[in-house]
Fold this sequence. Notes:
The chain contains two helices and nine strands, in the order βαβββββαβββ. It is an alpha+beta fold. The chain folds into two domains: 6-56, 2,3-Dihydroxybiphenyl 1,2-Dioxygenase, domain 1 (Roll), CATH 3.10.180.10; 74-126, 2,3-Dihydroxybiphenyl 1,2-Dioxygenase, domain 1 (Roll). Strands 1, 2, 3, 4 and 5 form a five-stranded mixed beta sheet that branches. Strands 6-9-8-7 form a four-stranded mixed beta sheet, covered by helices on one side. The longest helix has 13 residues, at 82-94.
Amino acid sequence: MRVEHVAMYVNDLENARDFFVKYFHANANGGYCNRSTGFRSYFLTFDDGARIELMNHPDMQDVKKGIRRTGLVHIAFSVGSRERVDEVTRMLRDDGYEVLSGPRTTGDGYYESCIMGIEGNQLEITV
């Protein structure tokens, strides 16, 4: 078994798509729009085949997203090396995203950083 994709609702669909393309080299499909419901989405595919579906709907609820909330907390991206973790973290910081921790080696041996990414969603960048 494998996870087919993870989905997230976002307020600014194109900005979210561009975020994942710029920092994580995602490939976006041409998008989908259901004209009768107003639902829109993009599927983003990463080099290893993992996918994220970004979605938008006129009736979305945008509730406060605390760091230690229940439910889905973060998405972790393996970028291949410690140097790349440092580089992506630096790019995000330079572009104004909040770095919550790292880059650092955690107690369980991961080299990672955590950032507050697009629309308040926490992302982990690891080797």
